[in-house]
What does this fold into?
Amino acid sequence: MHPSQRTRLLIYLFLILTLVILFRSIPSFLYRLLFNEAYDLNYDQLFAKRIKTYIMTHDCGRYTTSLATDLSGDTTLVTDSISEPQCNNASNLPLQETIPNPDDENQDQRYITKYTQVLNACSHGSKMLCLILEDDAVFLHTPTRTREVLIQNTITYHWNEDSAYDCGKRGNGWFASSQTGLGSLCRIYSKDKAGCLAACLTEPKHPLSHGDLELMRCQMKCKLKQKRFLLVQHTGLPSTMNRQEWPKDVG
It folds into this structure.
């Protein structure tokens, strides 16, 4: 090989190596420069002091124990009956028994009653954010990575916590999305707004109104910004709602 060709080849290799190094380091640098609030966070402390978890379950069965174990932290099981054997086995976790509403006519109305009681408990709690999970979910990540994703997507730039997070759909928790009214597998609300949502859910509604759609309506009424990110997936267990068909004459 001619010396001049060898020199050009070495120059090309040097340029390629330089570009590789730049492309590997620039994204990290830009991330730290633009979003330094989300860089090198104390995830354990933020999770322990900001997040309260409620797992909605009928009898502490399905994947209730698995979810509670994976997430750990400040977790309460919200069950229809604390006397269920599976709830007794989970006695190391706080239990919140749903107070039935005699006016509820179907599973969706009972679900709304249950959700309202969770939101009321959230509004009187000591943690800023309440993660509300259904018992047929599974986390995408390891427990450590789950807490990191949860914290990264719920960071706020200001003191106010005016966002509603749907953590069962793909997205980025820093940016607003359209209102998602289908699916309440994983939701996050702030204690500041939970009281408004609870009050809204107690308003008169259509007898066949779906709980998911009521949450969307109340999020809009309480002026919550909808955001979403993917933290869990549905396992495939059948729904316990037993929903009737929505009447054709109802918009």
Summary: The longest strand covers residues 51-56. Residues 59 and 123 are 24 Å apart (CA to CA).
